[in-house]
TrEMBL record:
InterPro entries: Integrase_cat-core, RNaseH-like_sf, RNaseH_sf. GO terms for biological process: DNA integration. Pfam families: rve. Signal peptide: none annotated. Residues 425-453 are annotated as: Disordered. PROSITE patterns: INTEGRASE (PS50994). One of its GO terms (molecular function) is nucleic acid binding. Residues 168-346 form the Integrase catalytic domain. This is Integrase family protein. It comes from the Bacteria.
Length: 482
């Protein structure tokens, strides 16, 4: 239940209006005002702030209230307690002490309030003109009122962390929500605070991949992996696409898996806008952080006592928790369950392409020059054989993910249309000596014998003869041969 208490000055104004209310609603007859005021002054009233305290008021006080509220448009505001003119001024702390504390906080924002107070006490002893140092509580209130809260930044921050800290100080932070379902997805990895056992007897800390819809908070896909890689990201993201459709935009952080070429090119080819958070600013993906707290507090708490926890069992439990608990629990901010929002609000999702198109989307674009001798190209230290019909090309464009070297797709340079599937070179099979005949699409024409001189040579000879000059050389063997 929310706190519906009114402010102190309003409660005093309402109380004073209640005291003189009968004088305003039923004005006394001429000459009876002082008698009615005296009667009100003899009453005992309950304190408007402290309910256990009883108070009384003098006749002159009640009379002053009456004349102030008689012709006022807002009697509560007129009768309310005025704010002191020196409100906010700390008389117990001199300006010199205040400035010293301010400079001290700017220099050492990671200090606790107690450490600031102890250091300020030593400084004040060496500067008697600063005045007496107030109590610890006064310093604590001063720091809280000015927003000088303890910083949890690293002791030796990097340049990026410094920029992020300065940005938080200079720019306001606001929450947001997209207006339609599947208008924006959030994707993030999380180090699950639990350990699992693999088939080889090794212990691992799994990585949880979660993809959430911004508007409905629906979990499009949740899966645990052994590492945070682009392969795992694409594996989970394609499953989310197949479950929920293609979103309009995807927000991630600046991790290596999120910025991998396969990820960025795949989102571009599928027409999904890729938005990244600012460096060292996890609050921009706050909905993911809330989801991680629920994952740790509900699902993983139920699994901590299980012995020999495997990745397979963890993923099965994760799917059951997502569908049976998370999607059906009411979100206090939305006042609805994620499933209700998904079913009852407008969606802007797009149709999912076939699996082959999805596979080709999340690939790198590689350009290579084929080797003329055997029509092969080298990618990541592996040679792939081109079909003979493409051996004449100066350069070829290939599509392939970095984690799958079993095949590469040859595509058209201009449209990226798939042309052929290329496999690694099998040198053992090539050693058998069997070779295919190279057949061209059109049979070569029969050569035609002619004794006529080429037109260009004939022109040179005619132009030289027309100059009238003798040949510029002395014949030798030509005489004996001819």
């Amino acid at each position: 239940m929310g706190n519906t208490q009114t402010s102190t000055w309003q409660r005093w104004g309402q109380f004073r209006l209640a005291v003189i209310g009968e004088l305003l609603s039923c004005p006394p007859a001429t000459g009876d005002l002082q008698q009615d005021i005296a009667r009100l002054a003899q009453k005992v009233y309950q304190h408007p702030i402290n309910g256990s305290q009883k108070i009384t008021f003098g006749a002159s006080t009640i009379e002053r209230w009456y004349y102030k509220a008689r012709h006022a448009d807002d009697p509560v505001a007129v009768l309310g307690r005025k704010i002191r003119s020196d409100a906010g001024v700390r008389w117990s702390m001199s300006n010199a002490l205040f400035n010293a504390l301010k400079n001290q906080y700017k220099t050492y924002p990671r200090w606790t309030v107690q450490l600031h107070y102890d250091n300020l006490k030593v400084l004040a002893k060496g500067q008697p003109e600063w005045g007496k140092l107030p109590s610890y509580k006064t310093v604590l209130r001063c720091m809280r009122d000015n927003g000088w809260l303890r910083s949890h930044e690293p002791a030796q921050p990097t340049q990026g962390q410094k920029w992020a800290s300065e940005r938080r100080e200079k720019r306001e932070i606001r929450g947001f929500e997209i207006a339609y379902v599947h208008g924006l997805w959030h994707l993030d990895f999380h180090h699950a605070k639990i350990r699992i056992l693999d088939a080889s007897g090794n212990w691992f800390q799994p990585m949880a991949l979660a993809i959430l819809d911004d508007h409905s908070r629906i979990c499009c896909h949740l899966q645990f992996y052994l590492a945070e890689t682009a392969e795992c990201l694409v594996h989970g993201l394609t499953q989310a696409f197949m479950k929920r459709g293609l979103p309009r935009a995807l927000m991630t952080d600046n991790g290596s898996a999120m910025l991998a070429e396969e990820t960025t090119r795949g989102l571009e080819r599928l027409g999904i806008v890729h938005k990244t958070t600012l460096p060292y600013s996890p609050y921009q993906n706050g909905k993911q952080e809330v989801f991680w707290s629920q994952l740790e507090g509900r699902l993983l708490e139920l699994l901590r006592k299980k012995k020999d926890l495997t990745l397979s069992y963890l993923n099965q439990a994760g799917q059951a928790w997502t569908e049976q608990d998370y999607h059906r629990r009411c979100n206090r901010e939305m006042k609805a369950t994620p499933l209700d929002r998904l079913m009852n609000h407008k969606s802007v999702a797009r149709k999912v392409p076939d699996s082959e198109t999805m596979h080709l989307a999340f690939t790198r674009r590689i350009t290579r020059k084929p080797r003329r001798s055997d029509a092969t190209v080298a990618v990541a230290g592996i040679r792939y054989e081109l079909p003979v019909r493409f051996a004449h090309m100066e350069s070829v464009v290939l599509l392939a993910p970095s984690w799958d070297k079993s095949q590469i797709i040859l595509v058209d340079e201009k449209t990226d249309t798939p042309l052929a599937r290329i496999l690694p070179q099998d040198k053992t099979s090539n050693a058998s000596g069997r070779r295919r005949f190279v057949s061209s699409e059109s049979p070569p024409a029969d050569p035609v014998e002619t004794h006529e001189q080429p037109a260009l040579l004939k022109k040179w000879m005619a132009d030289y003869a027309a100059s009238g000059l003798p040949p510029a050389y002395l014949p030798k063997e030509e005489i004996s041969i001819e």
